Amino acid sequence: MLRFKGLSEQDLPVKERVILQQAQRIVVKMGTSSLTHPNGRLKLKKIDQLPRILTDLENSGKRVILVSSGAIGCGMTRLGMRERPTELKDKQAAASVGQGLLMEIYQKSFSDFHQNIAQILLTKDVFSNKIKSSNARETFETLFELGIIPIVNENDSISTDEIQEESFGDNDILSAMTAEMVGADTLLILSDVNGLYDSNPAENDEARLISSVARITQDIIQAAGSAGTPLGTGGMATKIGAAKYATRRGINTVIASGDDVRNVYRILDGCNVGTIFFSRPVKTKTRIQNETKKENSHD
Hints:
Elements (H helix, E strand, L loop, with lengths): L24 E6 L1 H4 L8 H16 L3 E6 L2 H9 L8 H24 L5 E6 L1 H5 L1 H16 L3 E6 L17 H11 L3 E6 L20 E2 L4 H6 L12 H12 L4 E6 L5 H6 L6 E3 L7 H12 L3
Parallel strand pairs: 1-2, 1-5, 2-4, 3-4, 5-7, 6-8
Antiparallel strand pairs: 7-8
C-alpha cells in the first residue's frame, strides 16, 4: 500500500520485500547523525516528523519502539561544548543534561498526536542478567498493552563500556538486542548512509548500493569498515554487526537513510529503499555461539 505518488521505480514495492508489509512489532533506530546537525544541535524538523509516522504506525495496530541517540549531542549544546567530549566524565555529564532535554522535545512532539511515550534507559547488564531482562521485557509488554511507545537509549550517565563505544556503537547493537528482547519481527536502522555498498561510495563514484543480503558473510563484515561520524560513534561495521545479530534471531533488518524519515513508510510498504538483510531460521543460543567462534577462528 503506497502512501506517496510520483515515486521513482526504485521506490516501488518489490517482490522480495513484501514480507515487510506484514511487520507487526518494529524497532526503529535513529542515530546521532540523523537527529543532529554537525554542530550538535537537534534537527527539529525531523523530530517533528518522526512522532507523526510512529504514531500512525501505532494507530494502525503495530507495536513500535524507538531507539534514539542524541542525548550527548543535546547536552553538548546546552553545556556549550563545540566538539564531542572525549573523556568519560564529560560524556556522562553531557548525557545527563541532554537525556532530559531529548525526552522533553519528544514529549512535546508526540503529544501533538495524543500519543503517550515512555523512557527506558538500558545498559549491557540488563541483557545478560535473567532477572533484569525479564523485568525489562515485562515493562515493554505492559507499555504495548497500554498503547505507549517506548523510547530507548543507553543509560549513558552511569554506564562505562557502552559510552566508551566498545559495546553498542551509537545504539546499533542496542537496537538489535532490544528487538530480540521484545520479540520484534523487523528492525529499521536509519542513519546517514543509504545502505550497504559493494565499495566505499566516498572513494568510488561507481559504488553500487546492494538492495538485499541473504547471508552476512565475514567478507561483508570486513568490507564494511569502521568509520563513524564526528558526533556519532557507529559506522557501517556496527550496523552490519547489528543486522547479523538480529537476522540470526529471526528479525528482518533494513539499513537505510534517515535523512527522510518517510523512508519508514516506504520500507514497510516493501519499497526498494536501503539494504534489507533477510532473517535466518532462529537458532539456539548454543548454535549461535558455536558459529561465532568458528567465524572468529578464520579472522
